[in-house]
Specification:
The chain is of the alpha/beta class. The chain has a domain at 7-92 and 169-248: 3-Layer(aba) Sandwich (Rossmann fold). It is 34% helix and 25% strand. It has nine helices and ten strands. It has helices at 47-55, 77-82, 100-112, 126-138, 154-167, 184-196, 210-216, 234-237, 241-248; strands spanning 7-18, 21-32, 36-40, 62-67, 70-71, 85-88, 172-176, 202-206, 219-224, 227-232. The chain has a six-stranded mixed beta sheet with strand order 6-7-8-3-9-10, with helices on both faces. α6 links the parallel β7 and β8. α3 (100-112) packs across α4 (126-138) and α3 packs parallel to α5 (154-167).
Length: 254
Protein backbone atom coordinates (compact mmCIF):
# COMPACT_ATOMS: atom_id res chain seq x y z
CA UNK A 1 0.00 0.00 0.00
CA UNK A 2 1.75 3.14 -1.18
CA UNK A 3 1.44 6.65 0.18
CA UNK A 4 1.60 9.93 -1.68
CA UNK A 5 5.11 11.38 -1.75
CA UNK A 6 5.89 13.48 1.31
CA UNK A 7 3.34 11.75 3.53
CA UNK A 8 4.68 10.53 6.87
CA UNK A 9 1.49 9.07 8.35
CA UNK A 10 -2.01 8.50 7.03
CA UNK A 11 -5.27 6.96 8.14
CA UNK A 12 -7.87 5.80 5.64
CA UNK A 13 -11.50 5.39 6.73
CA UNK A 14 -10.36 4.56 10.26
CA UNK A 15 -13.16 3.40 12.58
CA UNK A 16 -13.36 2.10 16.14
CA UNK A 17 -16.45 0.70 17.82
CA UNK A 18 -16.91 -0.52 21.36
CA UNK A 19 -20.07 -2.54 20.94
CA UNK A 20 -22.76 -0.14 19.76
CA UNK A 21 -20.64 2.89 20.68
CA UNK A 22 -18.68 4.47 17.81
CA UNK A 23 -15.67 6.46 19.06
CA UNK A 24 -13.84 6.88 15.75
CA UNK A 25 -15.94 7.30 12.63
CA UNK A 26 -14.35 7.17 9.18
CA UNK A 27 -11.27 9.26 10.04
CA UNK A 28 -9.17 10.23 7.04
CA UNK A 29 -6.06 11.99 8.29
CA UNK A 30 -2.76 12.97 6.71
CA UNK A 31 0.45 14.02 8.41
CA UNK A 32 2.98 15.43 5.99
CA UNK A 33 6.69 14.65 6.34
CA UNK A 34 8.22 17.25 8.65
CA UNK A 35 4.79 18.62 9.61
CA UNK A 36 4.01 20.56 12.76
CA UNK A 37 0.40 19.50 13.23
CA UNK A 38 -2.04 19.68 16.16
CA UNK A 39 -5.09 17.55 16.94
CA UNK A 40 -7.70 19.27 19.09
CA UNK A 41 -11.25 18.65 20.20
CA UNK A 42 -13.53 18.70 23.24
CA UNK A 43 -13.41 16.00 25.91
CA UNK A 44 -14.81 12.77 24.52
CA UNK A 45 -13.99 13.69 20.93
CA UNK A 46 -12.02 10.48 20.43
CA UNK A 47 -8.49 11.95 20.40
CA UNK A 48 -6.96 9.38 22.75
CA UNK A 49 -8.65 6.51 20.95
CA UNK A 50 -7.28 7.80 17.66
CA UNK A 51 -3.72 8.03 19.01
CA UNK A 52 -4.01 4.61 20.61
CA UNK A 53 -4.93 3.16 17.23
CA UNK A 54 -1.99 4.92 15.56
CA UNK A 55 0.45 3.46 18.08
CA UNK A 56 -1.07 -0.04 18.21
CA UNK A 57 -2.53 0.10 21.71
CA UNK A 58 -5.97 -0.40 20.14
CA UNK A 59 -6.84 -2.26 16.95
CA UNK A 60 -9.22 -0.44 14.57
CA UNK A 61 -12.61 -1.96 13.82
CA UNK A 62 -11.97 -1.08 10.17
CA UNK A 63 -9.77 1.11 8.02
CA UNK A 64 -6.04 1.40 7.53
CA UNK A 65 -3.01 3.08 9.12
CA UNK A 66 -0.09 3.83 6.80
CA UNK A 67 3.34 4.84 8.10
CA UNK A 68 5.81 6.03 5.49
CA UNK A 69 3.94 4.16 2.77
CA UNK A 70 3.69 0.90 4.74
CA UNK A 71 0.37 -0.48 5.97
CA UNK A 72 0.96 -0.97 9.72
CA UNK A 73 -2.67 -1.60 10.71
CA UNK A 74 -1.86 -5.10 11.95
CA UNK A 75 1.70 -4.38 13.11
CA UNK A 76 2.47 -4.78 16.83
CA UNK A 77 3.08 -1.73 19.01
CA UNK A 78 6.82 -2.39 19.55
CA UNK A 79 7.36 -2.94 15.85
CA UNK A 80 5.75 0.41 15.07
CA UNK A 81 8.31 2.07 17.33
CA UNK A 82 11.12 0.34 15.44
CA UNK A 83 9.59 1.60 12.19
CA UNK A 84 9.88 5.17 13.44
CA UNK A 85 6.68 5.96 15.36
CA UNK A 86 7.45 7.62 18.70
CA UNK A 87 5.08 8.76 21.42
CA UNK A 88 4.93 10.55 24.74
CA UNK A 89 1.99 10.16 27.11
CA UNK A 90 -0.45 12.53 28.81
CA UNK A 91 0.76 11.18 32.16
CA UNK A 92 4.49 10.53 32.06
CA UNK A 93 5.78 6.98 32.44
CA UNK A 94 9.35 7.73 33.51
CA UNK A 95 11.46 5.70 35.93
CA UNK A 96 11.22 8.18 38.77
CA UNK A 97 13.94 6.59 40.89
CA UNK A 98 16.53 6.66 38.11
CA UNK A 99 18.67 9.55 36.94
CA UNK A 100 17.67 11.57 33.88
CA UNK A 101 20.64 10.17 31.94
CA UNK A 102 19.70 6.57 32.73
CA UNK A 103 16.12 7.13 31.56
CA UNK A 104 17.27 8.44 28.19
CA UNK A 105 20.06 5.89 27.88
CA UNK A 106 17.58 3.03 28.18
CA UNK A 107 15.82 4.22 25.02
CA UNK A 108 19.07 4.77 23.12
CA UNK A 109 20.38 1.35 24.20
CA UNK A 110 17.13 -0.32 23.14
CA UNK A 111 17.42 1.21 19.68
CA UNK A 112 21.09 0.19 19.41
CA UNK A 113 20.30 -3.35 20.52
CA UNK A 114 22.43 -3.36 23.67
CA UNK A 115 19.69 -2.91 26.26
CA UNK A 116 19.53 -6.60 27.16
CA UNK A 117 23.11 -7.59 26.38
CA UNK A 118 24.47 -7.64 29.93
CA UNK A 119 23.60 -6.62 33.47
CA UNK A 120 25.40 -3.29 32.95
CA UNK A 121 23.41 -0.07 33.08
CA UNK A 122 22.63 1.38 29.69
CA UNK A 123 24.53 4.60 30.44
CA UNK A 124 27.76 2.64 31.08
CA UNK A 125 28.21 2.14 27.34
CA UNK A 126 30.30 5.05 26.07
CA UNK A 127 28.48 5.42 22.76
CA UNK A 128 25.07 5.20 24.43
CA UNK A 129 26.11 7.70 27.08
CA UNK A 130 27.52 10.13 24.52
CA UNK A 131 24.39 10.03 22.39
CA UNK A 132 22.16 10.41 25.45
CA UNK A 133 24.12 13.41 26.70
CA UNK A 134 23.93 14.99 23.25
CA UNK A 135 20.16 14.61 23.32
CA UNK A 136 19.95 16.10 26.79
CA UNK A 137 22.12 19.00 25.68
CA UNK A 138 19.83 19.67 22.74
CA UNK A 139 16.87 19.90 25.10
CA UNK A 140 18.70 22.00 27.67
CA UNK A 141 18.87 19.16 30.20
CA UNK A 142 22.60 18.38 30.28
CA UNK A 143 23.04 19.95 33.73
CA UNK A 144 20.23 17.72 35.05
CA UNK A 145 21.69 14.44 33.77
CA UNK A 146 22.55 13.12 37.24
CA UNK A 147 19.30 14.27 38.87
CA UNK A 148 16.66 11.71 39.72
CA UNK A 149 13.42 12.15 37.82
CA UNK A 150 11.44 12.58 41.03
CA UNK A 151 13.54 15.64 41.92
CA UNK A 152 12.87 17.49 38.67
CA UNK A 153 10.16 20.11 38.10
CA UNK A 154 7.29 18.63 36.12
CA UNK A 155 8.06 20.70 33.05
CA UNK A 156 11.54 19.22 32.86
CA UNK A 157 10.09 15.73 33.30
CA UNK A 158 8.05 16.33 30.14
CA UNK A 159 11.24 17.34 28.35
CA UNK A 160 12.91 14.11 29.48
CA UNK A 161 9.99 12.24 27.90
CA UNK A 162 10.67 14.00 24.62
CA UNK A 163 14.38 13.15 24.91
CA UNK A 164 13.48 9.49 25.41
CA UNK A 165 11.21 9.52 22.36
CA UNK A 166 13.96 11.18 20.29
CA UNK A 167 16.41 8.54 21.46
CA UNK A 168 14.42 6.04 19.42
CA UNK A 169 15.07 8.09 16.24
CA UNK A 170 11.42 8.57 15.25
CA UNK A 171 10.23 9.70 11.85
CA UNK A 172 6.87 10.58 13.38
CA UNK A 173 6.54 11.90 16.95
CA UNK A 174 3.17 11.92 18.72
CA UNK A 175 3.08 14.19 21.77
CA UNK A 176 0.07 13.58 23.99
CA UNK A 177 -0.64 16.84 25.86
CA UNK A 178 3.03 17.81 26.37
CA UNK A 179 2.00 20.90 28.35
CA UNK A 180 -0.53 19.14 30.63
CA UNK A 181 0.04 20.08 34.25
CA UNK A 182 2.95 22.33 33.31
CA UNK A 183 3.08 25.98 34.49
CA UNK A 184 2.90 28.50 31.64
CA UNK A 185 6.56 29.52 31.98
CA UNK A 186 7.65 25.91 31.58
CA UNK A 187 5.19 25.26 28.75
CA UNK A 188 6.92 28.05 26.83
CA UNK A 189 10.18 26.19 27.33
CA UNK A 190 8.58 23.07 25.85
CA UNK A 191 7.53 25.10 22.82
CA UNK A 192 11.06 26.44 22.44
CA UNK A 193 12.41 22.90 22.49
CA UNK A 194 9.87 21.73 19.91
CA UNK A 195 11.04 24.54 17.64
CA UNK A 196 14.59 23.14 17.76
CA UNK A 197 13.71 19.54 16.88
CA UNK A 198 14.97 18.17 13.54
CA UNK A 199 12.79 19.43 10.72
CA UNK A 200 12.53 16.00 9.09
CA UNK A 201 10.54 14.66 12.06
CA UNK A 202 6.77 14.96 11.59
CA UNK A 203 5.24 16.06 14.90
CA UNK A 204 1.61 15.69 15.93
CA UNK A 205 0.58 17.18 19.27
CA UNK A 206 -2.68 16.46 21.05
CA UNK A 207 -3.26 19.44 23.29
CA UNK A 208 -5.98 21.33 25.20
CA UNK A 209 -3.88 24.46 25.76
CA UNK A 210 -4.87 26.66 22.84
CA UNK A 211 -1.94 29.01 23.39
CA UNK A 212 0.41 26.07 22.85
CA UNK A 213 -1.58 24.82 19.85
CA UNK A 214 -1.71 28.13 18.01
CA UNK A 215 1.95 28.92 18.69
CA UNK A 216 3.16 25.49 17.59
CA UNK A 217 0.98 24.20 14.77
CA UNK A 218 1.21 24.97 11.08
CA UNK A 219 -1.92 22.88 10.56
CA UNK A 220 -4.75 21.88 12.90
CA UNK A 221 -7.28 19.05 12.78
CA UNK A 222 -10.43 19.40 14.90
CA UNK A 223 -12.02 16.13 16.03
CA UNK A 224 -15.62 16.08 17.32
CA UNK A 225 -17.59 12.96 18.28
CA UNK A 226 -15.07 10.71 16.56
CA UNK A 227 -15.16 12.60 13.26
CA UNK A 228 -12.97 15.22 11.63
CA UNK A 229 -14.95 18.46 11.80
CA UNK A 230 -12.45 20.62 9.95
CA UNK A 231 -8.76 20.82 9.13
CA UNK A 232 -6.64 23.75 8.05
CA UNK A 233 -4.00 26.33 8.99
CA UNK A 234 -4.37 28.08 12.38
CA UNK A 235 -5.69 31.32 10.91
CA UNK A 236 -8.60 29.47 9.29
CA UNK A 237 -9.36 27.33 12.33
CA UNK A 238 -9.40 30.38 14.62
CA UNK A 239 -12.08 32.00 12.44
CA UNK A 240 -14.25 28.92 11.84
CA UNK A 241 -17.54 29.40 13.67
CA UNK A 242 -18.13 25.65 13.89
CA UNK A 243 -14.94 25.34 15.92
CA UNK A 244 -15.96 28.21 18.18
CA UNK A 245 -19.33 26.59 18.80
CA UNK A 246 -18.03 23.15 19.73
CA UNK A 247 -14.69 23.95 21.32
CA UNK A 248 -13.16 27.40 21.41
CA UNK A 249 -16.14 29.39 22.60
CA UNK A 250 -15.67 33.02 21.62
CA UNK A 251 -11.90 33.11 22.21
CA UNK A 252 -9.89 34.91 19.57
CA UNK A 253 -6.45 33.79 18.50
CA UNK A 254 -4.02 35.45 16.20
Amino acid sequence: MSAPQGLALETRSLCKNFGALTVADDINFRLEAGARHALIGPNGAGKTTFINMLTGVLRPSSGHIVLGGENITQVAQASRVKRGLGRTFQINALFRGLAVLDNVALAVAERRGVARRTWRSASSYADVRDESMELLGTLGLADDASQRIRDLPYGKQRLVEIAIALGLKPKVLLLDEPAAGVPSVESHRILQVLDTLPKHIAILIIEHDMDVVFRFAQRITVLVQGQVLVEGPPEEISKDRRVHQVYLGEQRHA
